[in-house]
Design brief:
Blueprint lengths: L1 E2 L7 E2 L7 H17 L2 E4 L5 E4 L2 H8 L5 E2 L32 H10 L4 H23 L3 E3 H6 L1 H11 L6 H12 L8 H24 L5 H6 L2 E2 L2 E2 L2 H32 L1 H9 L4 H12 L4 E6 L3 E3 L2 E3 L4 E5 H4 L34 H18 L4 E2 L5 E2 L9 E3 L1 E3 L15
Parallel strand pairs: 4-12
Antiparallel strand pairs: 1-2, 3-4, 5-9, 6-16, 7-8, 9-12, 10-11, 13-16, 14-15
Helix pairs in contact: 4-6, 4-14, 6-7, 6-10, 7-8, 10-14
Bound molecules: protoporphyrin IX containing FE.
């Protein structure tokens, strides 16, 4: 880390949130920035501010007037480049809007992700988790990511949206590949193609619901009006794609981290097996410590002071929720997983108006997966040589593979989906 010598004394760090170094050492890097330079400039990806402590992350996330989420895809001269660094080629949905537009376009989705709606769908989440366990339970072997933590959230989200689950594996693989590959990797354009293929399939299903509405979420949204006008088609498509990406990869990452942690800490696993009432608090601690969405971007809309740094209009800012969640001033012994930590006001789901709309849904989905593992394959043993982390940590941090063995058992029911 160095400080430039110009009169502003801009703090600079040589940190790239997409690099392998960050993927492997994010906790150390983020914590080392807290005391010394919680707001610091990185020259990677065209230059951006990295904000890593709780106070300043909260300040930026809650000030959507000075720190905008807007993405002006059609106007390359605009500094407003959305929530991705590097910038995404397409506009996402309402996540890339500021109030009051954001409020108008988020509202119609709200009741679908409220606690009551999530509770109604929870039995189905549990059924899908059970089916995935059943597929492997007689073999005594499981890849906790490939066989379980990836499929369950994919099936759950696709079903909930009302999309076909026929190609769920293709969808799930495409999203995990895209989010785990560095944009400079020669395979990246192929990954983007995979994402566009999902996008094209979603458009076909949207057209189908327009002519033949069903009782599902997509049909409802297609026929939703905002201020007397239909929900704009491209925006709706962006929102659906966001729900797929947001719902699939994040929950997969959370579950992968948790299963790996519990595999390596059998005493704590036993505690959760013996005392299920501890699982809710444990879920919050996993969210804090592993923060699946590490960081998300904003654009500065007017010259602004953040801590002791002067930010200029048009500059890009990366707010590190993962950093805020490791801030000692907010979380004593932040570097320890404390399963019953209280209070635990983590920002893994974000802060401010863009706070995750799917938070209840994600918690219920994760709990269904956790309960099933703790109850049906409680003695799983991780095969350390198979543990493979995402090589690049961009928006989402996670694992590609975690294989484990366990005592085989009889399946409970015929499987709903094949593992292949
Ligand atoms: C463990 C799982 C999850 C984590 C850690 C997570 C994290 C986040 C975070 C940090 C944000 C804030 C983005 C910002 O400030 O710009 C967010 C927003 C969002 N999330 Fe999640 N998310 C999760 C699961 C889900 C699920 C299951 C869904 C939907 C099925 C979802 C859909 C969304 C959407 C649509 C937004 C945009 C909200 C807005 O802009 O108003 N997420 N999420």
């Amino acid at each position: 880390m160095s400080h430039s010598s110009d009169f502003v004394q801009r703090a600079e760090v040589d940190v790239d949130h997409m690099s392998l170094d960050f993927a492997r050492n994010s906790h150390e890097i983020l914590q080392s920035m807290h005391g010394r330079c919680p707001v610091a400039w990185s020259n990677h990806h065209g230059g951006y501010w990295l904000v890593t402590d709780y106070k300043h992350v909260a300040e930026v996330a809650r000030d959507d007037r000075r720190f905008s989420s807007v993405h002006e895809v059609a106007d390359p001269s605009s500094p407003l480049r959305g929530v991705g660094i590097p910038e995404a080629a397409q506009h996402a949905g309402f996540i890339e809007m500021d109030p009051p537009l954001h409020t108008r376009f988020r509202k119609p989705w709200q009741s679908w992700f409220a606690p009551a709606a999530t509770r109604r769908f929870e039995p189905r989440m549990r059924e899908l988790a059970r089916a995935r366990c059943d597929d492997v339970i007689e073999s005594g072997r499981i890849d906790l990511v490939h066989d379980y933590a990836a499929p369950v959230p994919a099936l759950v989200v696709l079903e909930y949206l009302g999309l076909s689950t026929e190609n769920w594996r293709e969808t799930s693989d495409a999203i995990h590949s895209l989010l785990s590959t560095h944009p400079a990797d020669p395979r990246f354009p192929e990954m983007v193609k995979g994402w566009h293929k999902i996008g094209a399939q979603v458009r076909v299903e949207m057209d189908d619901r327009r002519s033949r509405p069903r009782g599902d979420l997509i049909s409802s949204m297609i026929h939703t009006e905002i201020d007397g006008e239909a929900y704009p088609e491209d925006l709706l498509h962006g929102d659906i794609m966001d729900f797929i990406a947001g719902g699939v990869d994040t929950t997969t990452a959370l579950a992968s981290f948790a299963f790996l942690y519990l595999g390596r800490h059998p005493d704590e696993r036993q505690l959760l097996i013996d005392e299920p009432m501890r699982r809710d608090a444990a879920c919050e601690e996993f969210l804090r410590y592993f923060s699946p969405i590490t960081a998300i971007a904003r654009t500065v809309t007017e010259d602004a002071q953040l801590g002791d740094q002067s930010l200029r209009k048009g500059e890009r800012v990366m707010i590190c929720f993962a950093g805020a969640n490791l801030d000692e001033s907010e979380f004593p012994r932040a570097e320890e997983v404390i399963l019953d930590r209280f209070p635990n006001r983590h920002s893994a789901f974000g802060l401010g108006v863009h706070r995750c709309i799917g938070s209840n849904f994600a918690r219920a989905d994760f709990r269904a997966m956790l309960d099933e593992v703790l109850e049906r394959i409680p003695d799983y043993r991780i095969e350390e040589s198979t543990v493979q982390q995402y090589p690049a940590i961009g928006k989402v941090n996670g694992y590609l593979s975690i294989e484990a063995t366990f005592t085989p058992r009889k399946r409970r029911r015929a499987s709903a989906y094949s593992t292949t």
